[in-house]
Structure formats: structure tokens, C-alpha cells
Recover the amino acids of this structure.
């Protein structure tokens, strides 16, 4: 049975950005009083929005430290993405196979459109997802995930 639609997450599925984010968080933490380990970063931060990560940091270190953390993380992360980011191995082959089979696909992520434009663009994948990029920021937070996925389905020509 062929799927009607494949919905990809961005970070860690299409682009190999998670190791970069983990290293950046580990670099920032000790200077602010939290010598956070790789396992802690994975457990507490991976797969979460920047807003929820900032809340975790604020709960532990206070809001002023969380603001500093966010700024330093952004600087380190942005610099590393520019030089280290790659597509997940094999993802272009998967997209080629989906195209050949006529299967529609899109990306849905907790990241912003700007972030995905940068990460997908930096790896040469952006053109494959133009007008098929969905962010949790495109829907009011009160909407459930299923509503957001319904919008994704409708936008790629499938029934919601």
C-alpha cells in the first residue's frame, strides 16, 4: 500500500542538526552554572521548541540566565550550522523515490519557518519543500496537532 502523504520532521530527520545543537547547549551551560551533560541535553531539550527549552533553563537558573543562555546558544549554533550542517545521509534518495512514486511529502516541525529555511537551504533541500513547510508557529497554539496536520494535508492537495 502506497502512502498518500509522508510528513517529515526537520531536525534530526531531514537535516543532521541535533548534534550541533547538543554541543552548543553543552558549551553554554557551564559558564552559567549548569555543567549540562550530553544525556541531559538530549533528555531535556531535544525535540522541544526554543520556548519550552528556555522555560526549563529559567526554572533551573532564573530568567536572566535563560536569556543569556538563549543569546549565547543562538550565536554558537548559528555559526556551527553555517559550517557543519549536512542533510541526513540518504534523505535525497528517499525524496527521489517518493517523487518517482508520485507520493506527496512535506515537512512539519516545531521550528520556525525562518529556521527551516536556513537549515533546509543550507543543505540544498529547501527547493524540495517550497510551499510544503509547516511550523507550529503557523497555527494558534490552541489548535491540536491533528488540526495542524489537517492543514498540512489540505495544503498538499489531500483531504483533511
Amino acid at each position: 500500500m502506497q502512502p498518500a502523504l509522508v510528513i517529515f520532521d526537520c531536525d534530526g530527520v531531514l537535516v543532521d542538526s541535533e548534534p550541533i545543537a547538543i554541543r552548543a547547549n553543552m558549551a553554554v551551560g557551564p559558564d552559567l552554572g549548569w555543567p549540562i551533560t550530553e544525556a541531559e541535553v538530549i533528555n531535556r531539550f531535544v525535540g522541544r521548541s526554543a520556548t519550552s527549552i528556555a522555560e526549563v533553563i529559567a526554572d533551573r537558573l532564573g530568567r536572566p540566565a535563560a536569556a543569556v543562555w538563549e543569546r549565547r546558544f543562538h550565536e554558537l549554533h548559528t555559526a556551527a550550522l553555517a559550517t557543519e550542517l549536512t542533510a541526513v545521509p540518504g534523505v535525497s534518495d528517499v525524496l527521489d523515490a517518493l517523487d518517482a512514486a508520485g507520493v506527496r511529502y512535506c515537512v512539519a516541525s516545531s521550528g520556525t519557518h525562518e529556521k527551516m529555511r536556513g537549515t533546509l537551504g543550507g543543505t540544498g533541500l529547501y527547493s524540495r519543500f517550497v510551499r510544503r513547510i509547516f511550523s507550529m508557529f503557523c497555527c494558534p497554539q490552541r489548535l491540536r496537532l491533528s488540526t495542524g496536520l489537517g492543514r498540512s494535508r489540505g495544503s498538499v492537495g489531500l483531504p483533511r
In short: The CA atoms of residues 120 and 126 lie 5 Å apart. The first strand starts at residue 5 and ends at 8. Helices lie at 18-28, 38-44, 50-61, 63-84, 91-101, 113-122, 126-129, 145-155. Strands lie at 5-8, 104-109, 133-135.
